[in-house]
Amino acid sequence: MVTMGRRAPDSTPDLALSFANTVELSRGRIRDRIATPHDLRSWLAGEFSDKASIIESLRSPPVARTVHDEALRLRSAIRELLETYSAGTAAGPGTILVINRALVTCTITHEVVVSGGVLTVREQERGGSPLALLAPIARSAGVLLAGVDRGRLRRCAAPRCPVWFVDSSKGGRRRWCSMARCGNRRKAARHRERNPPES
User: Fold this and answer.
1) Which residue among 125, 161, 190, 191 has the highest number of C-beta atoms inside a 10 angstrom radius?
2) pTM score, two decimals?
């Protein structure tokens, strides 16, 4: 097993959660932050500043549509994996196929690097296809689920909120994606239930 360092956003499990959470609850409505190929390109540019040349290829409408369609399938697969893993059930083979299809679009090689007298092995991505932009997201989902305690993987307890998070709180009792957003809304709703306005 290769241990990945802190060299890029694709080396952390947070990338998979960030991608899964591009569907969010905003002002009481579900909002898709990658609803269009242009939205996806903007999101990818924000995550992968080191892949600007590949992201630039998404300016071509046919390429952008192809990558966007595959990205939406990948996001659905990751969300299904989060759901099934947290519930202790197995994901369907189609879900795993979508994840693996994204993974094979890029090739990881390794190189030996000597710096300051210390020898290390570093991963190098060799992938020029625009679809290769999705491989780090799929890899991140695998890293996340291989390393997280299933009891700490949660979907926000607020009704209709689709956001997933890993509860890293000391007591493991976090319920909301954000206390400032969903937690406060729920507190306010409970307060209104207990104290209805006088007629």
Assistant:
1) 161
2) 0.81
What are residue 107's phi and psi, to 5 degrees? -110, 130
Express each pLDDT in 74-130 by its tens digit.
999 999 999 999 999 989 999 999 999 999 988 777 888 888 888 888 877 776 689
Q: Mean pLDDT: which of 23-37, 71-85, 126-140, 183-197 is highest?
A: 71-85
SS (H, E, C) 122-179: EEEEECCCHHHHHHHHHHHHHHHHHHCCHHHEEECCCCCCCCEEECCCCCCCCCCCCH
101 sits in which H/E element: helix 93-103
Contact by Cβ (8 Å): 166, 148: yes
Q: How many residues are listed for the chain in this entry?
A: 199
In CATH, the architecture of 9-148 is Orthogonal Bundle (1.10)
Is 58:37 a contact under the CB 8 Å cutoff?
yes
